[in-house]
Amino acid sequence: MQPKKKEKAKRKPDNQTPVNQCRLYKVTSPKRLAEALNLSVSDLNELLICTKNYRFFDIPLSVNPFTGKTRKKRSVQEPTQKLRRVHNRILSLLRRMSYPDYVQGAVKHRSYQTNAEAHKGSREAATFDISSFYGSTKYHLVHDFFVRVMCCPSDIAGKLANLTTCNGAMSTGSPLSPLLSFWVAKKMFDECHTLAGSYNLKFTCYIDDLTFSGEKIPRILKSKIKIIVSRYGYKLAEHKTRNFKFGQPAHITGIISLNKKLHVPFSRLMAVRKVTNAIEGNGESFGFTKEELKKKLAGMVGEAATIDSRFDKWAMYTRNEIVDPPTS
After folding, report:
1. For 283, which of 103, 149, 229, 277 could close a Cys bridge (C-beta 3.0–4.6 Å)?
2. Given CA atoms 51, 55, 57, 62 in this order, what sign does their dihedral have?
3. CA-CA distance, 289 to 212, in Å (whole number)?
4. 8 A C-beta contact, residue 227 and residue 242
């Protein structure tokens, strides 16, 4: 008789674990911390004293030739393999914790599409962007989160803050940063949610993008948001603040909301046309091969289909062109 195979323990589902049941809650010793992170104490200590836990590089300024959009130069701090495993472990633990409905980024089954969907049908909308969100999420704020919310003693909170920040702030190249930065700033986002409720508005946050919508956006909203975020050590990116009146297409995390429907932005449609023309030999390919252009088109049309179902058939066709291209 063969021995029964040991069943793999099922991972707890996301968004269902109370904070006080998280493995990081009330961790009181380095040994317990190491166990929670799936490390030995010696490996934990090695990571804490290592000065080469990150790889530093810059993503240069670039222009998408099909959309014309410019991506600014960006400095990236990417955790090396050992630390990245720790970040992924902490991420898996934080994902299980219950988070508010207004959170639309960095969590399962929510995205920039669901963020826009939450505001569909509102007469007016306003969007705000937090300037240098990760860079402004400083070591002391992360330390405070592990002390105040996770109820860890200061020395353990310090170890966790050391493991999850780079040069005194949240790193820009870690998979953990989007969700941990939310938990660190949750009190700030909760205040924004409460403020929205006081004006009968809907509120969502998608990483560092804040969206409010409803029948009427009060003029005082921006100044009140500025006060809230500054109280927590953050600033609004003034040039990214936008107000959309009734009848105007509202641009919400890259999607158009108008007349109670979501639409693909015109700039994306024009980009799709340019790629199509390039595939057919009627436009500039900008150095891309035909196969690369077909993959690019499939991705663009597939993304459009997640916003507007009218693109579904086209998305299926472009996918089939990649999987089973026609023979000449």
Report:
1. 277
2. negative
3. 42
4. no
pLDDT tens-digit readout, 128-146: 999 999 999 999 999 999 9
Q: Which residues contact 65 (CB under 8 A, 6 or more apart)?
A: 284, 286
| CA trace torsion 310, 315, 317, 319 (10° rounding) | -170
Q: What is the pLDDT of residue 36?
A: 97
Residues of the chain with pLDDT under 50: 1
Q: How many CB atoms lie within 10 A of CB 233?
A: 13
| C-alpha span between 284 and 274 (Å, rounded) | 8
User: H/E element holding 318?
Assistant: helix 312-323
Over residues 240-270, the pLDDT tens digits come to 999 999 989 999 999 999 989 999 999 999 9
Q: What is the DSSP letter of 138?
A: B
Q: Two tokens at 196?
A: 């929205």
The model's pTM is 0.90
For residue 164, the number of C-alpha atoms closer than 13 Å in the C-beta half-sphere is: 33
